[in-house]
Amino acid sequence: MTSLDAAGTRTNGEDPGGKPVTTANQKTVVDDTSVSALLERGRRLATPVLRSAVARLAPPMDTVAAYHFGWIDAQGRPSDADGGKAVRPALALLSAEVAGATPETGLPGAVAVELVHNFSLLHDDLMDGDEQRRHRDTVWKVHGPAQAVLVGDALFALANEILLEAGTAEAGRATRRLTRASRHLIDGQAQDISYEQRERVTVEECLEMEGNKTGALLACAVSIGAVLGGADDRTADALESYGYHLGLAFQAVDDLLGIWGDPEATGKQTWSDLRQRKKSLPVVAALASDEPASEKLAQLMAADAKKSQAEFEDFDEAEFAARAALIEEAGAREWTSQEAKRQHATALAALEPVDMPAHVREQLTALADFVVVRRR
To answer: Where is this region: Disordered (predicted)?
Structure first.
């Protein structure tokens, strides 16, 4: 079977097995207990500060934001809905320990990054027309598009406010990194939208877009705590490199889940990315392949581009299943799985020159492993 390497050229690979985490010569092992504890620590420390920040918003934005975070339901009643994986807060707190500081030192950074991340989710859901997130209706569907935009803007402003309140030189350095990452994130979303209107996108363009949209903010998350803890720029830059490539691995897995993920686990519709005509990594890789299935897929997608979104959404399940099968036949499911592993390896390599406690290195490795084996 033929798949693609990172530059879009041919390499030999195994048949896709539907499990994007193992190869014949590599086995990823995740310490679930360690990762769960890190994620829970991130949620436990960050949530009270997040709630306090959201409480600063004028009504009804405070209520809308609380719904988005899963703290209340659509009727305003207390809720314990899924608030997300909390990977970014966990990374920010852990990065403070890289610098020899306490996890709490990274808390303003953890909260700021989580606010920016959720700003992007609110806007992305509206722009993409997503009606479900975390197993319930999205904000724009419940509260309307205007509130989704306003609350997203408010969360972005709060992120910078939270960071700058410390008034220290480290807080200023951290804010510069956050604003740069935010700009790249927005660049990535703009690229993502523009690619939907194009018949062809190169693998390189797709990786650049995903590096902006996902890698930049994860890079910031894993460096911002260290900066707040007094780390120098060389250390912070190495941590950013780890986070950037971890973000690319994260997005590659996300792209696989966007086509083949279990709706019960992801909280989204079956074939969700195909329904939105996204030029995600498996789609782009399939179109770049020289397998016969690639040309068949290209012909279908060219015809799809002439249809309205309403016509396209009327397709039955078999139509989307057929497109997913062609992507897999072209070798792109397996290639994307391998790309996640390549980015994972590059992320871990970036940590090698960084001096840090052994337990912190082990935890950063465990979080990286978690990203490439997750199911939602």
So the answer is: 1-26
| Total number of domains constituting the chain | 1
Of 358, 359, 101, 72, which Cα lies nearest the Cα of 229?
A: 101
Longest Cα–Cα distance of the chain, Å, equals 60
pLDDT in tens, the chain (376 residues): 334 443 333 333 333 334 433 333 334 445 567 899 999 999 999 999 999 999 999 999 999 999 999 999 999 999 988 777 899 999 999 999 999 999 999 999 999 999 999 999 999 999 988 888 888 999 999 999 999 999 999 999 999 999 999 899 999 999 999 999 999 999 999 998 888 778 789 999 999 999 999 999 999 999 999 999 999 999 999 999 999 999 999 999 999 999 998 887 766 777 888 888 888 999 999 999 999 999 999 999 888 888 877 777 778 888 899 999 999 999 999 999 999 999 999 999 999 999 999 999 999 999 999 988 876 6
CATH number of the structural domain spanning residue 304: 1.10.600.10
Q: Could you give the CA distance from residue 328 to residue 286 in angstroms, rounded to a whole number?
A: 8
Distance of CA 8 to the CA centre of its chain: 23
d(CA 114, CA 50): 8
* Cα distance between residue 36 and residue 41, in whole Å: 8
Query: Structural domain of residue 201, as residue ranges?
Result: 2-373
DSSP states of 56-118: TSPTTHHHHHHHHTTSB-TTS-B--------HHHHHHHHHHHHTT--GGGGHHHHHHHHHHHH
Q: Is 218 helix (H, G, I), strand (E, B) or coil?
A: helix
Closest CA to 116 of 27, 213, 1: 213
Other beta carbons less than 10 A from residue 365's beta carbon: 18
Residue 370 and residue 91: Cα distance in Å, rounded? 12
Q: How far is CA 135 from the centre of its chain?
A: 17
Distance CA 241, CA 253 (A): 19
